[in-house]
Design brief:
The protein contains nine helices and no strands. It is an all-alpha fold. It has two domains: 61 residues; 97 residues, Oxo-4-hydroxy-4-carboxy-5-ureidoimidazoline decarboxylase (UraD-like, Orthogonal Bundle), CATH 1.10.3330.10. Helix 1 packs antiparallel against helix 2 and helix 7 runs parallel beside helix 8.
């Protein structure tokens, strides 16, 4: 099944169709779409905003361990997976839209250093909704956020994951 075959609003899709289409909105975490479908989809879920609110609420209500797994499902920005072409189609497009696939050697080195320092401090990768951002803006945010406490950065990362999900829903 491909996303292009599905016609109609989210509330009209069966479970399999819904999970195939919306299960990739949150990186490698179809459990969120499965939970939304299991809770029952209504007309209010047929808008991007309505569906996003429900998906975000499922993430926010999840145990911290599950939230941490969601954060860890995200790739490093301008990281090794990107260089090897091993990102999801969504992550590839998002990183390319910010020019992360065109880093200079110096920029790539700085991203590598920041990714390593970040992961040494936090138990999850640096996450930012990069669509529409420049490499400079991303590096600036990286350098600022690395000084956060773990709790502040955990909440910031979840907020960025929700922004990414909203952008992905809009693209669908």
């Amino acid at each position: 099944m491909t996303a292009q075959r599905f016609r109609g609003p989210p509330s009209s899709l069966d479970r399999a169709q819904f999970v195939v289409l919306y299960g990739r909105v949150y990186e490698h975490s179809p459990w969120i779409a499965e939970a939304a479908w299991a809770a029952g989809l209504k007309q209010e879920h047929d808008t991007v905003e309505g569906l996003h609110r429900t998906l975000a609420a499922i993430v926010d209500a999840a145990p911290r361990k599950r939230q941490l797994a969601l954060l860890c499902a995200h790739p490093d920005l301008a990281g090794r997976l990107a260089m090897r072409g091993e990102l999801t189609a969504e992550s590839t497009a998002e990183q390319a839209s910010a020019g992360l696939d065109q880093c200079t050697p110096a920029e790539f080195q700085r991203f590598t250093e920041l990714n390593e320092a970040y992961k040494a401090k936090f138990p999850f990768p640096f996450i930012m909704a990069v669509k529409g951002k420049s490499r400079g803006e991303i590096l600036e945010a990286f350098e600022r956020r690395i000084h956060h406490t773990e709790e502040v950065e955990f909440r910031t990362a979840l907020s960025e994951v929700h922004k990414i999900a909203l952008l992905r829903l809009r693209d669908l």
